[in-house]
């Protein structure tokens, strides 16, 4: 199983990686922004960090990592120990990108991340970004 922390990273990564997809982009931005709002308050991150993430700016910063981890937990893709629920993550990604095979491939490649739950969340987002760009 994979943790919720990774899910937040994936959620943000999806918005970043697939920002050129017109269908549902504004809806996804809205969902992520709403999710980030709660986590911004909890982590000390800034709205600017979220805004820049949409443009692919992913700072290797502890506060940003906490933000991604918090968002993943809120989406129930990662737990407190950093365990990722792979099936939930694949389902989410498949829905987001509209291509189950591509989503599964990205998740399979990016779930090999190690470290703290915060590092996992961050590294998965970076990995997914690199898979798409």
Automatic annotation (TrEMBL):
Annotated GO biological process: sensory perception of smell
> What does the sequence similarity comment in the record state about its family?
Belongs to the PBP/GOBP family.
The protein's GO terms of the molecular function aspect are:
odorant binding
Domain of life, source organism: Eukaryota
Transferase: is it a keyword of this entry? no
Organism per entry:
Callosobruchus maculatus
Matching entries from InterPro entries are given as: PBP/GOBP, PBP_GOBP_sf
Quote any Pfam family the record assigns: PBP_GOBP
Signal peptide extent: 1-23
| Alphabetical UniProt keywords | Secreted, Signal
Q: Which residues cross the membrane?
A: none
Q: Which GO terms describe its cellular component?
A: extracellular space
Q: Where would you say this protein principally sits, based on its record?
A: secreted
Q: What is this protein called?
A: Uncharacterized protein
Q: Does the keyword Signal apply?
A: yes
Q: Where in the cell is it found?
A: Secreted
